[in-house]
Amino acid sequence: MSLLPRRLLQSAKSFIVNRPSSIVFVLVFLFTIHYSLLTSAVKAAEQPNPQPCQNAKFDEDKLTDNWLTQDDGAPYITVTKPFDDQPVLFSFDVDFSKLSALFGPANSNYLEGNFQNKDHKAANISQLNAVNISKFHGVTQKAAPKAMLDPLKVETVEYIYGKNTLAESADIYTDFNGRNSKTIYDLRNTFGKPDPETQRGTDEWENGWGKYWDKIPTTYSEFYEGRIIFKYALEADFQRIINGENCPPQLPREITFVMPEFFRTTAVTGQLNQIIVPNAAQSDHSNDLVLAQNNPATRLGVLGKIISICSKFLKENPISNALEKVIGGLPKIFNPISNVYAEEPQGCIKILGPGKEGQDPYCALPAGQLQGNDDCVNQIDEFKQDTANENVVCTFYIEIPASFPAGTYGIWPVFRIPLISETWNNALFSDDAEPGIGSSNFQVTNRPGVYSWSTPRVIFENKLERLLSSCDPNVTDPLNDPSCTELINLANRLINCNPEEDPNSSSCLELDGLGIPLGEYDGFKNCVEQLGGGLQNWERQILGCAYTYIKTLSDLKKEPGESDQNSSNDARERFVGGVKCAGPHQNKNVNFLPKAAQEEFGITNECPLTAVSQLPNAGSGPPVGSPGDFPPTNDNCDGTYALDNPKRNFGDPFCDFSPEALAQYLQSLDPQKWETYYDIAFIEGGFAFRPNDYNPNSSNPNAGGAWGLYQMAQTGRGNTQYDQGDVYWQKQAYNAVQYNNQLPNNLKWCYWEAASPRYLDICGRP
Amino acid sequence: MIISLNTIKTKYLKIGILLLIFSGIMAAIIIIKSKPQFSPVQPKTNLPQVVEDLNGKQILTPKNQRNKLPDTAENIKQEMIKNNNGENKGVLILYNTPSYKIEYIPTPDIFLVTILKTPIDQNKLAAEDWFKEFGLAENEICNLPVRFSLAIDAPDYSEQFDPFPTGCVNNP
Questions:
Q1: At what angle do helices A538-556 and A523-530 cross, to 10 degrees?
Q2: Are residues A461 and A435 in the same domain?
Q3: Residue B40 to residue A756, Cβ atoms within 8 A
Q4: The model's pTM
Q5: pLDDT digits (tens, 9 = 90+) for A146-201
Q6: Does any CB of chain A come closer than 8 Å to the CB of residue B37?
Q7: CATH topology of domain B63-168
């Protein structure tokens, strides 16, 4: 043995004998060093263990308060506390199955495509043609550049990989052939962290992540906590609070609930805002939700908290109306004296109008929220995420504590909803007259939300302004200027629009396409007629008329997403996906789809079509009020309807009809007799539900035929206003119920042959 | 001729009474004749020819009036619902063939079989067999409840159709 090894051996022997504890240290070091070499993400990754509705995030900065008030902002509940030293209880019912859908209208599926749908993740897309590939990708992934999508997808993969309790952590993705099923966890372990920027084009990518990349969503579904709190005030302070002069305190009781889809909806609206809207016009700091989520440096940049929460009594308050459904009617109050006040409404927030409620994924009441005599009943349906949780429709007993002084208390239940103002900020047209929507720095007028992307040509090709600015009527020979001749031609064309006679005339469509609300604008015609004969320079004067007229129209033009303040459809028109009709603007499909694809999908420039956000599932129906009127379309809803009637698709223009949707809607209209109305529709349709049915040989020769589910009259030709069947299916059902309700008992149901003795035998039986 | 007061009273009183009775009868006949006869109310719709007489049977028995399913049938029902093949506007798709499709509609809690092609009876039986393969008896299929809908493409199709399954023959 050489000298050096011998010395090393001796040193080692002496080290072992003299310092045995050091040996333990060295061994521990050797066995654990590999942990420190791995990234934190890998350390966090564990097998998928989905726990929907568990581990929800709570971030007070992302909560928006939605006050439940009387229409005038007065307290929703009034409770008298007779004695100083005794508590008073009132009951408060909440249906958590409806709460999420109410606040989370399902725009994310519409905007992002069906990336969260399990069928979508497992689809075979290798055989799809270009049109269907486009459809598969959905709006965001179709329109956005890879440079934007890739980082979002990478972040999504990493987040799901690192958070194995997410509901989607166990979802299966297949490759583009619909084979080789893997979870994100499997993919990440097999192929490593995706790096499309450097890997794309290599064999590693093509045989790995590349086969799945088209199916990876740009965001994930995160669960957030919301709160129900109860603001209170003594009667003497009501008016000050309604006026926004005072912010009421809250009762001690606070109820926590979990909202599933909000993060995703917000993230997707932000992405769309980023894709479509020029940088200068983008929402304030809201576009980077996914990337900013786990980055402490940017976290504060994501929208600040809403200020002045006390001022958010809702104006023309459809959410209050809708919330009433969620809370199951007026609460029972123990020791009650109910008052109804009638002050003027106060508030500024614009909220989603009625018609967007539906069913969305929801979480039942989290554990630990029931107190005292609180009680819940279960509901089993496909939307409940935490299927084992039986606390769905709950009655809470809220206490005004004994220590509070006696008196009459006004209670405003407040639903503190996560992320909703961020969504609005991304999606609504902005107006500086509306502080409180989303941004702590207030809004900038004309800063469009996502909605604007449906009419880019109005933004970027403002035809009227271009003509007005390039034509100068004062030059020597203005009619040599093509802009000026075009002005006159345009004026000539537009004066022929008479929307009362034919809103679909080419002149009206041209006005509509220019973003000008339809109306009778005869300024040009009058001006020309007033010129009289013997003009020295009639061409120049006609040009003057045309110029003035077009300038008037230009002033009337609405910016994208803008609608008349305080119009009944204001909120709806301003919200992407919240529109039943794209208002004065075209729908997005017309602008974004190639012509061939438009024809393939039956998309025309007419109003509603697929621009409407389709609820993924049947909705609980709009509030019990008359549904809107919507023009018919030519859409056969993927071949569902033959459309062999003069009005084509009058009954299901949004393709949202289903036997389930009808059942839910009828149930909301008449909870006692809805099944009979269901039967009648089924029988009148020849043992089928036919919202587009038409029978020209109605037994009433003056009725203009029998239309729709209930075979009622053509508009304007029925016995009463409700005898009307050639309308949207919800209105058909609504009309049927209203018509029958107005009949005397001995004629109830007798309108329909289905009620006669040969069939249901209920004619004259109330 | 001597006419005593008594005779007048007796004779003319009798005639008067008879006249009164006769007038009353005539008046009653006129009133009865002039009163409109009861007639059934004429409905304002005409049902398609395919609609078979129901004789007062409801198609959709309200949930609170339904017979409770035996536990085994209830379990089978829940299993069928759970194993759905997807969902479309709130309707759960259970089975799809070119001739018929089977769906579950949650709110009314019914299984709706839509017959898409002729021969109707054969396709109805095939759909019923699908339920029987799960172990359900005919009356259980009726009470599940299963109902049949008609969506035949042929516009002139007019044969009468029974929306109830075979097992509902004797059920009101």
A1: 160
A2: no
A3: yes
A4: 0.40
A5: 666 787 788 888 888 888 888 778 888 888 777 788 888 999 999 999 988 888 88
A6: no
A7: Transcription Regulator spoIIAA (3.30.750)
